[in-house]
Amino acid sequence: MNQKLEANTLKVVANNQGYQVKGDVKINGQPATLDYRKPSEGDADIKMQATLDDASRARLGIDLGPAVSGAIPVKVNGKIGTDSRVGIDADLTALKLDNILPGWVKLPGKSTHAVFNVVQKPQSTRFEDIVVDGGGVSIKGSLELDPNGDLMNANFPVYSPSEGDKASLKAERGPDGVYKVTMRGDVFDGRGFLKSAMSGKEADAKSKTKNMDFDIDLKLGAVAGYDGEALRSADVKISRRGGTIKNLTLSGKLGKDTPLTADMRARTPGGRDVIYLETNDAGAFLRFTDTYSKVVGGQLALAMDPPTTEPRANEGLINVRDFSIKGEASLDRVAAGGPNGLQNGIAFSRLRAEFTRQNGQWTIREGVVKGPMIGGTIEGTIDYPANQVRMSGTFVPMYGLNNMFGARPVPRRR
């Protein structure tokens, strides 16, 4: 298998029918137990057990980057020779997974099991009859790698990385090296993907996905988000070249059938493109993305730099008009003396803020919010990887100022 094998003690039995090697070994430095039987004619039978952690996977050339961390106990059973075919049985319970496949996020301790067959061909390695189950996951299909370990194609007719998902996934590398990724389904839990997208962490420098060119075509009946919100009739197309998003279109419906759209637009003639997103239900969008749960209604327009693998900050601007905030205790205390009460929340006519995003941290600056009852400013940071929010601002009860100026007419000079 083109790996260095070492052992202090081995049991070797040989006769006219063949030979057997058995014992505790190190394969490229990785401890394992080995039972290797080679008949005088035909392929060899192999049985092996080992536990592969991050370092040992890297030594064996199976470096999956930050998307996979933790130890994997594996059992190998099969044949090696002219037609090499081995079965792999892997316990994924101790692993942490972060979108190793789209939307598949797993924390350590959740029981998950994988079995598949590895078939070695002169020009490729096929992973056939893949079955991953446990912890709400059900993934079935196959994939193929070239001699460099790069993906050639993948086909998962059953693709359910979260309980309740009903979807399929295909990927194929074209002659130009661009991957065509197609996803179809009725229901898909998008929270894991949303969390990864919102965090915007830079790709690992060694990751093979860092500069992968792809065209994604996604159509799903419903994508589940946070706070009970879902994007229905989701239709998404994304193209990336050289680590930068070049084209994007998105359409779907949020809340009570309110359209959500996004596309790429030129910021200025000859300038960088921006992603422009808009919807007339800002509250549903902010809940869907797990940004803020207490906004009701609102017309949202958001423009931002497209994601890139380069280590630079992405800039953006958000505008929201004609919305309310309901159930925010700090605002309720400021508005408690207002004339209109708080039954329907506190109304605002406008919110505007600039932001930057870099390596999972959003920095909000020059935020201004205006309304008939309250006006104010806001700034701070949202750190998605650390799950921390640090925001500050000043709120002014506008109704008090309005009453003051209304009760005291300003004298005019004669």
What does this structure look like?
The protein has 414 residues and is mainly beta. The chain has a domain at 1-91. 9% of the residues lie in helices and 55% in strands. It has five helices and 28 strands. The chain has helices spanning 54-59, 191-199, 282-288, 329-334, 398-407; strands at 5-6, 11-15, 18-27, 30-39, 44-52, 68-69, 72-80, 85-91, 96-98, 105-106, 113-120, 125-134, 137-145, 151-160, 166-173, 179-189, 214-224, 230-241, 244-254, 258-266, 273-279, 295-296, 299-304, 314-325, 346-358, 361-370, 374-383, 388-397. It has a 25-stranded mixed β-sheet that branches. The protein has a three-stranded antiparallel β-sheet with strand order 6-9-10. A hairpin with a 2-residue loop joins β3 (18-27) and β4. The longest helix has 10 residues, at 398-407. The chain is elongated.
* Radius of gyration computed on alpha carbons: 28 Å
> Helices and strands: which structural class?
mainly beta
**How much of the sequence is in beta strands?**
over 45%
The percentage helix is: under 10%
Strand elements, count: 28
Q: Indicate the low-confidence ranges by residue numbers.
A: 400-414
Mean pLDDT: 86
Largest sheet: 25 strands, mixed
Helical element count?
A: 5
In whole angstroms, how far apart are the ends? 100 Å
Assembly context of the chains: single chain
The rough form would be described as elongated
Features of the shown structure:
mainly beta, disordered C terminus, 25-stranded mixed beta sheet, 5 helices, three-stranded antiparallel beta sheet, 55% strand, 414 residues
